[in-house]
Amino acid sequence: MNPARRLLNTLIDWQGQHTLGSQSVGNTRSLSDDDGMQRQLDALDDLRQIEEKLDVLDAGGVRVAVSRRYVPTWRRMALGYPQGWSTQADPGLIYVEAAMDQLETLADRIDERLPDLDSEEKKKLEDIVAEAFELLHSDKTLSQPLKLYLGRIIGEIQNAMLDEKYAERFDYAEAARRLWVTLMAAAEDSTDEQQKARWRDVLKRFAWDSGVAIVGGAPGLVLALTSLS
Asked: Are the C-beta atoms of residues 186 and 150 closer than 8 Å to each other?
C-alpha cells in the first residue's frame, strides 16, 4: 500500500475514534501505549515517504503543486496540532475534509503512476537479489563503499521478504530502483572482466517478456539495457 493511502486510512480511523466529541489526540490515538505511539510514528514516516513520492512524480512530469500545498496541512493533521493538543479538541478542526480529499486523490495518482510490484515481480526481484548477493561476495574488486551500500540494499529487500510485518511498510518498487542503479555502478566499478559480465547479466534480469521493467519502465532503462547487450 502506498504511503498516501496508508496515511489516509490512519487519519480516517483516528477520526472515527473521535466519536465522543471534543477529546485530545492523546486519548483518541492511545498514545499512552506502545502500539498507539508506534502508529503515530508510522504516520510521520508516511509523510516522509509521501514527499519522496511527490519528488518522483514531479521528476516524471506529473503535476503535484496542489498536493505539495497540502503537505503542511497533512503534517498538522498527523500530529493533531495545534487543536489536538488540547483536552477539548474538535475533530472537525483536526481532520480537514478538503485535505483528506486531496490525500485520497494523491493516493490514487501514486497507485496509477508508481505502482508497487505485484507477486510475479517480487519473485523476479527475489531471484535478482539472490544473484546479486552471491556476486557481492565473489567479486573482490568492488570498492568498499559500494560493497557496503549494495549490501545494505540487499539486506533491506531480504528482510522485507522474510518479515511480513516489516514488508507491510516496505516500498519494493523504490528498493528495486535503488538496487538497479547500484548494480549499474557495480558493473562499472568491477575490474574483473568475468565478474563484470555477470553483473551485466544480473542487470538484464530487470526486463522481461513485453519489455516492462521492474524499475518502472523509465526511458533511460531501455537504453541502459541495450548498451549492456
From this structure: yes
